[in-house]
């Protein structure tokens, strides 16, 4: 594990070892793999649909980054709240959003989360504890800090989490959110998904310091983790959440990974050295977790086939679904009068570690 300490120090990057995980059951470990397989299969299917002209706009994926959203989300309890970014489909999957709903979303169909109001990656199912994505980067850090502020004021044992990229850390909003979270000692986890590029800008044009060291400037810990190791990402997030719930305040987690595809489907990423991509391909997070789960005696190929069949079925369902009725275009744009309709529910959260806490 990258760290099992609740007092996460800032400083040098840590790497995962193969020590058996303390807080994960075999079901959890298989569940992590399943969610990553599902993310990859859905995004690959969506990319085909995009190429067939069925996904409007462009398409953005998190190929090779599956461990970041899946590992972190697995550590969150049902009552926690998530601000999910464009490479983090795994968060939606772990919270229980179904593949057909996701594919319907991408195609702008009625059955998508936004029912065609946005056919893209800007969505969040509030019933699962996810907030619809604000595209301006990294405004979701401010939204997450705001939710954490509400939890603190109401004295609720809950935590907010958000993801953002290396490029996002150069914006003023990043520093405002970090400062407010530090000053108010908020129960919030900031996951910096360092995938080496922000569109075509490499990280040496982005940071003059090791980015986790910035957390110290705002009075809270920063920790770096191997973002291609789903169990390590889980463990740092679990420890950060434990600290947050105990009143220990925020944590900045840097998940070091690689954007294996272009920024979007329209980007051939000519500016990325091929050797770099090949190097990272050897560290594929799914291959890594497959090896671990296989060593536990689980039939990984059967699991992979099951996930692919499920996604294929979902694609059929989504393609057969209707487009939204144009007469409803202005529905759901504003706060409904009946406030009950927008009350957040508790979503689905698989990690058994919090089951006792809730009962
Ligand atoms: C304020 C702002 N400027 C520009 C954009 C357009 N944009 C969307 S994603 C992106 C790249 C962001 O890079 P990074 O934060 O590293 O995230 P990554 O895409 O690598 O996951 C840009 C420039 C935006 N959404 N918001
Ligand atoms: Mg980036």
Brief write-up:
The protein has 359 residues and is α/β, with parallel strands linked by helices.
Overall mean pLDDT stands at: 90
If classified by CATH, what would the architecture of the domain at 57-93 and 117-296 be?
3-Layer(aba) Sandwich
> Runs with pLDDT <50, length 5+?
1-17, 352-359
Order of helices and strands: HHEHHEHEHEEEHEHEHHHH
What is the count of helical runs? Answer: 12
Instruction: Kindly provide the name of the CATH class of the domain at 57-93 and 117-296.
Output: Alpha Beta
Structural class: alpha/beta
Distance between the termini: 28 Å
Taken from the alpha-carbon principal axes, the silhouette is: globular
- Indicate the proportion of strand residues: 5-15%
Major sheet: 6 strands, parallel
Any idea of the CATH topology of the domain at 57-93 and 117-296?
A: Rossmann fold
- Determine Rg (CA atoms, Å): 19 Å
> Which kinds of small molecule does this entry bind, naming each only once?
thiamine diphosphate, magnesium ion
* Helical percentage: 25-40%
CATH superfamily annotation of the domain at 57-93 and 117-296 = Thiamin diphosphate (ThDP)-binding fold, Pyr/PP domains
Number of strands: 8
- Main β-sheet, spatial strand arrangement: 2-1-3-4-8-7
Give a verbal description of the structure.
The protein is an alpha/beta fold. The chain has a domain at 57-93 and 117-296: Rossmann fold (3-Layer(aba) Sandwich), CATH 3.40.50. Helices cover 40% and strands 9% of the residues. The protein is built from 12 helices and 8 strands. The strands form 2 sheets. The chain has a 6-stranded parallel beta sheet, sandwiched between helices. Helix 1 runs parallel beside helix 4 and helix 4 crosses helix 11 (300-320). The longest helix is centred in the N-terminal third of the chain and has 26 residues, at 26-51. The protein is globular. The two termini are 28 Å apart. The model is unreliable at 1-17 and 352-359 (pLDDT under 50).
């Amino acid at each position: 594990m990258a760290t099992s300490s609740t007092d996460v120090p800032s400083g040098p990057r840590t790497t995962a070892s193969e020590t058996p995980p303390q807080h994960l059951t075999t079901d959890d470990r298989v569940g992590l793999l399943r969610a990553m397989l599902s993310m990859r299969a859905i995004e690959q299917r969506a990319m085909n649909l995009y190429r067939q002209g069925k996904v409007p706009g462009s398409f953005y994926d998190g190929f090779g980054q599956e461990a970041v959203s899946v590992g972190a989300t697995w550590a969150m309890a049902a009552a926690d709240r998530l601000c999910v970014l464009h490479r983090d489909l795994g968060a939606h999957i772990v919270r229980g959003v179904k593949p057909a709903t996701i594919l319907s979303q991408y195609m702008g169909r009625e059955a998508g989360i936004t029912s065609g109001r946005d056919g893209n990656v800007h969505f969040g199912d509030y019933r699962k504890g996810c907030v619809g994505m604000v595209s301006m980067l990294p405004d979701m850090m401010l939204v997450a800090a705001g939710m954490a502020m509400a939890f603190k004021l109401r004295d609720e044992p809950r935590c907010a989490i958000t993801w953002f990229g290396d490029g996002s850390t150069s914006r003023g909003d990043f520093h405002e959110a970090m400062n407010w979270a530090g000053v108010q000692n908020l129960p919030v986890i900031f996951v910096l998904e360092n995938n080496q590029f922000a569109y075509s800008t490499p990280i040496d044009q982005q940071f003059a310091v090791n980015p986790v060291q910035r957390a110290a400037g705002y009075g809270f810990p920063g920790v770096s983790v191997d973002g291609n190791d789903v169990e390590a990402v889980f463990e740092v997030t679990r420890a950060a959440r434990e600290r947050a719930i105990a009143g220990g305040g925020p944590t900045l987690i840097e998940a070091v990974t690689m954007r294996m595809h272009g920024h979007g489907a329209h980007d051939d990423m000519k500016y990325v050295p091929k050797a770099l991509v090949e190097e990272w391909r050897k560290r594929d997070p799914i291959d890594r977790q497959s090896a671990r789960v296989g060593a536990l005696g689980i039939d990984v190929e059967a699991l992979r086939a099951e996930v692919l069949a499920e996604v294929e079925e979902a694609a059929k369902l989504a393609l057969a679904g209707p487009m939204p009725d144009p007469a409803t275009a202005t529905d759901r744009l504003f706060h409904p009068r009946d406030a009950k309709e927008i009350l957040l529910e508790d979503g689905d959260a698989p990690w058994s570690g919090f089951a006792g806490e809730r009962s």
